[in-house]
Amino acid sequence: MPTTSEKLANLKHYLRELGSVAVAFSGGVDSTFLLKIAHEVLGEKAVAVTIASEFFPASETSEAADFCRAENIRQIVLTENILSVEGISANPKNRCYICKKNVFAQILKAAAENNLAAVAEGSNMDDTGDYRPGLQAVAELGIKSPLRRAELYKAEIRALSKDLNLPTWDKPSFACLASRFVYGETISAEKLSMVERAENLLREKNFRQFRVRIHGRLARIEILPEEFNRLMEIRAEISDRLKAYGFDYVTLDLQGYRTGSMNLGLS
């Protein structure tokens, strides 16, 4: 089993071999680390490509742009109306596959137009579990996954990011807003806005890790169990604000925050 240092060396070697790369950059922990290393190795031949869409909060897109400016990394921003892609709004079980196929096709086009040899994305070894249909699209399109190739796990990426003084080293995990919907429930711009506003409120209240899952007009809040008591202290305000955003019911999930809770029941 290679050490973390050896994995980092392998990552740099692999990126150097690619020659030039468009990094699918969301501003999260993994893509920020990947972009930083790619730029360190390839310089101007490493370019960030960010998708601005209704599936990602404006705050995330803004943070991604801030990072690229601070690091003097070229960034290409592609504005996509994901809800217009056929089949997406119906939210089928393969929604992530359909979305990733569309998004990475756009990034591949941008890479070709800018003479970049490869497109890379930031999935890591922890992403090989759970239900990840998006990785099928990544494989089919020939998108590179350097962090998985280097066998890096999330904890290692956070530790290496801390060593590099990256602002994202302890950033909470995030997934696109569509992951807040139960499969089969129609995704609309209105409901995406409801979820975004609700999660912005929890961020404003300094909750560490959270999700607001939407079930019709019911909001199911997931936070860390150790923060339950703090939410109870402001439950009236949270409930009133979320109802003002359009929810009829506001609930707290007693299991607390966990990834993939919308995948329960999938065969």
In short:
With 267 residues, the chain is of the alpha/beta class. The protein has helices at 4-18, 29-42, 58-71, 95-113, 134-140, 146-149, 154-163, 189-204, 228-233, 235-245, and strands spanning 21-24, 46-52, 75-79, 118-120, 210-215, 218-223, 249-252. The longest helix is centred in the middle third of the chain and has 19 residues, at 95-113.
Helical stretch count?
10
> Helical content, roughly?
40-55%
- The CATH topology name of the largest domain reads Rossmann fold
* Succession of helices and strands: HEHEHEHEHHHHEEHHE
Describe the model.
This protein is an alpha/beta fold and about 270 residues long. The chain has 2 domains: about 5-165, Rossmann fold (3-Layer(aba) Sandwich), CATH 3.40.50; about 175-265, Alpha-Beta Plaits (2-Layer Sandwich), CATH 3.30.70. The protein has 10 helices and 7 strands. It has helices at about 5-20, 30-40, 60-70, 95-115, 135-140, 145-150, 155-165, 190-205, 230-235, 235-245, and strands spanning about 20-25, 45-50, 75-80, 120, 210-215, 220-225, 250. The strands form 2 sheets. The chain has a 4-stranded parallel beta sheet, with helices on both faces. Strands 5-6-7 form a 3-stranded mixed beta sheet, covered by helices on one side. Helix 1 packs across helix 2. The longest helix is centred in the middle third of the chain and has 19 residues, at about 95-115.
